[in-house]
Structure formats: C-alpha cells, structure tokens
Amino acid sequence: MTTESAVPRSALFGNPAYLLPQISPDGTRLYYLAPDRGVLNVCTAPLDRPEQARAVTRDRGRGIRTYGLCHDDRTLFCLRDADGDENWRLYLVDVESGEERCVTPFDGVQARILAHNRWHPTTILLGLNRDRPQVHDVYRLDVPTGELTKVADNPGYLSWVFDHDLAVRGGAVLRPDGGMTIHLDAGGADGPQPWLEVPYEDVMGTRVVGYSRDGTRCYLLSSVGANASRLFEVDAATGTRRLLAEDPTYDVKRVEFDPVTREPQAVVFGKDRDERVFLDDGYAKHLARIHQELALAGIDAEVFVDRTDRTDQRWTVSVVTGAGPVRYYCYEQSSGQLRYLFNHQPELEKYQLARMEPFAFTARDGVAVHGYVTWPAGVPRRGLSAVLNVHGGPWARNTFAFDEEAQLLASRGYACVQVNFRGSTGYGKHFRNLGAKQWGAAMHTDLLDALDHLAAGGGIDPARVAIMGCSYGGYAALVGATFTPDRFVCAIDLCGPANLLTMLAAGAPYRTPLASFMHAQVGDPETERDMLWSRSPLSRIDDVRIPILVVQGAKDVRVPRDEAERVVAALRDKGLPHEYLLFPDEGHSLTRPANRDTYYAAVERFLAEHLPVTRE
Predict the structure, then answer these.
(1) Which of 403, 556, 578, 610 is catalytic?
(2) From CA 604, how far away is CA 528, in angstroms rounded?
(3) Whole-model pTM?
(4) What DSSP designation does 540 have?
(5) d(C-alpha 24, C-alpha 43), whole Å
(6) Among residues 370, 453, 519, 588, which one is catalytic?
(7) Does 556 qualify as catalytic in the annotation?
(8) pLDDT tens, 258-285?
(9) Of the candidates 269, 230, 277, 275, which has an alpha carbon nearest to the alpha carbon of residue 253?
(10) pLDDT for residue 447 is more than 90
C-alpha cells in the first residue's frame, strides 16, 4: 500500500474491474460485469477456470448495469436505455453465440422485469406501459421465440404481486389520501380483492415480499400497528398471521429466502451496521462459518449472499469492509470453503482508504438522528474542512458501505458528513413521517444540527463546510445556498429540483400513480401552493452569496433540464458566482465513465478553489 492518500478518480469513478458476480443456474460458470473495450459488459468463465474469461455481450454505449440469467441455461437478459431516458428495453443474449435480440423494441415504452424463476425456465413476466403510458400491464415473454402475450391489464396497481407459478395474485393501489390498498387473490373466483388497507404513514413500510413455494402462505412486511416494519407469515386463504421478526426501532432492510422452498431464513435490520435475525439454524451456521473465515483473515465486513445456483451448493458472497474494494468469494455449502474470487477494483489496494464511522446526535426538537462520517485517513480529527454530502430520495438512507464520493473527499483532506435526516428510511415510520412536508424545513435543520454536533466535538470547522448532493441531495445543496448561505462556503447541485411546484407537475407518465404519495409527503399543489413555492430554492435565489456548481443530465425525466437552467439564468442575471455543466447523454445520474470523470474533476477543482483544505 502506498503512503500517498490521494486516490485517483479513475480508480473510484471509472469502470470497476469486476461487478455483480453470479453463478450460473446450472452451477458451472461464473458471470460478472467487467469492461470490454472500455464499456461494462457481461463476461463469463468456468467456475473452476476463471482465467478462461470471455465477454458475452458487446455493448458499446453506456454499458450494462442490470442483468440476469435465465433458468434455460442458455439465455442472459439485460436492460438498457437511451442516454438515461429510463425507457428500458429488454435484450436477450445467447450465452454461447453472443447473439442478441431486443424483445421490447418499442419507442417511449419502459420495460420492467417482474418475475422469472427455476420452475418456469423459459418464461419471464414483464411490465410494459405500451398501451397506457401511466401504468404497466403484465406480459408473458416466451424466451425461445421472443413472443409477448398480455397476461393482465393494470387496474391501477403501482406494483404487482405474483406467486412462484407466475400467477398474478394481486397488487397495490395508492389512494387519493396517500394511503394504499393491497389487493390479493385468496383463491376465489372473483380474483384479487381488497386485502389490507394501509394508512399513508405506513405505505413505505408495508408490502408483500413473496409467497411460499406452494402458494398457501405469503410473507408480509408491515408497520401497521407498530413503529417499524415487521415480517409476518400470512395464511393466504384465512389471513391468519404469524409474526416472524421485528425490531421496535429499525425497519426490515431485506428478507433472505431459501431459493428452493422459498421459506424465509433470515431477516436483516439496517442499523448502524446490518444485523441478521435468523429463522433457520442451518442457514445461521453457514453465515457463522463465512464470518469466521473472514475474521481469521482480519476482515470485519458486511456480508451479502447471492444464491443463483439451482442446487444451492455454491453461493457468491460480497464482502463490504467500508475501507477497501468490495471483495467477492465463492462459498461451497458442502465443505464450508470460502474461496476468494476477486475485488471490484484492484487498483484501490495501493492506497490508504478511509472507513465510514457511524455517529448520532439529538436535533433541536429532541429527535434522535443518525449518520456517518468518513474522516481523512491518518489525519488528526481537529478543525477539518468538511463536505456535507446529502443523500437522494429522500426516501432512502446512507448505509455502511464503500462510498466512492466519501473516499474521494476524504482522500482530498475533507471530512465527509452523511446524515440520515428525518424522512430517511430504515428508522421506523415515526422518524420517516417526521419528514412529511418538511422539505427545506426540519429536514434541512437536521443537516445543520449534524454540523453543529460535529463542530462542538472539535472535529470540523463550522466556518469551512461545503454542501453537495444528487437529486434530493441536489435540492438540499440549493436550499443550503439560498436558505442558509451563511452556513456554507459553496454548494454543488447534481440533478436537484429548484422549484417544488414544477417538480410535482413534471416526470414521466408512469410516475403519475405516485401523485397522491408525493402530495402527502411533499405537499399538494392545489392546497399548499404557497408553502411549496416558499420551500423552493428559486423563491430565494436573491439570497445566494456563495458559489454554486450546477450539474444536469439533458435526458433527465425526473428533474427536467429547465430546473437547472432557471437557476443558472437567475444566477447569471444577478451576477452571482456559478458554474454549469450539462451532459447531453445522461439522465437523472451520471453513468458514462468519461462523464463521471468530468464531473468529479469539476467537483475536485471547485472545492479546491472555494474550500481549500486547512487543518488546525
């Protein structure tokens, strides 16, 4: 490891060397994403002869980020859009010949993969908004022929529920009050009927996550009647529930199922670090063995298991230390052997990396708030310049992970502060719903209170803080520059909305069913227009006194380009300091490595100019 701490941008934001490994369903081959001619493609090698790798796909554009393997043992599927327009098309690729077919070649249509499993190896269920742009109907795709057959018209579902025979069992509909009704088919002749009424405060914590293999039981995550989401087993015919796992504070992050029986084997709660509650002793022993092997190697990490081998004898294991590249292993159930495969970016091993550390504080109104700080490695934690890096969503959260942006900032000498402000997910519905209609208000003061907490401890200099983020995080950066410019020396906005009224009116047609949810959580333009405008950065553009870097993807369907350009025009008209980057071939994020390098080079230069690193 080099003593040089400035990790090159190419190692952080260029193409990874390896990503998303999967074992083929027949258990003989390893698949993964890797660069081919500088573009991410799906590659494969025999599981026992990794040196015989070859590319399967031949994408020469934005690269492949989402792929899967069909259980016919000869077909790979992947999704691609055009320059970030989110109109995903589904491609099927013969894994031997490399022959590629686009099976959804429809302009202005978004394909969603809804279901595929081992029991129906040549069938994929797709959602297509082909007939009505606002909703996705269900189609059955015959993999060998590419023939599409409509299975069900969408009666207004935001999401669908299927069993393992690929039968439609129901779906979820958002109500005008922001609540949700889950419809399920209990086996009668009338099809799916209203099954569970979910208040708006429970919408984000309640959903059906699967069925048992025989279809007699479903598994329900629900926060109704509790603060945090709990896992229930529900008799599909009678509705009788059995509680399987719960935590009074933290929501269920994910459920890990046996791939053959489809019985839940573990429930993961997303605390400062993930915590598993095991429902199956055999599975618990395997995970204990994996952690034991890692501990012997001195590795403290989060572990993610992928079980795509139909025999379930070989698993791919992703190991996240938070202070190094993501490591990938193959685990053999029969022997308990954990065999190292590769890591996602070997170049990172040359550098001293930082590690995310959790922190917590009490906000000004007494609410407990959590977050993470990535401190520069090997530097005294006193009076550091800091960057407040705000997560998007906002119905998401920061987690313990390898975070490329945090590593960039820490390696340049900044403390990277990431706050799970109210409205963030994972901390129960009370905390999440404290963020309702608090954009630019209490959600923002939580960010300020985090800075005050860290400054009070002496770690950061409160007079030397920048704010940045993407999507909601970009909005928060604009709020920081317009509402509280005295708290920040500069701001970086990537794809952030500047006017909540136009944000709520815009968006792709298939986002229309989300309107009632957005009105309940952000505000209703019909009845709360003044409030929404007052929370919009454009309403206070005259108050900007700090430099702003505004960045936008021209194909963004969530935050239109006009949002960014109205901010830039206002700043230009008033002679306020700013920079503007427009990427014509990107959408609501930056995907192409060249564009990512351009953006992060601009971030690095912008921060160096306006927030040069100083230490006490």
Answers:
(1) 556
(2) 39
(3) 0.95
(4) G
(5) 12
(6) 588
(7) yes
(8) 999 999 999 999 999 999 999 999 999 9
(9) 269
(10) yes
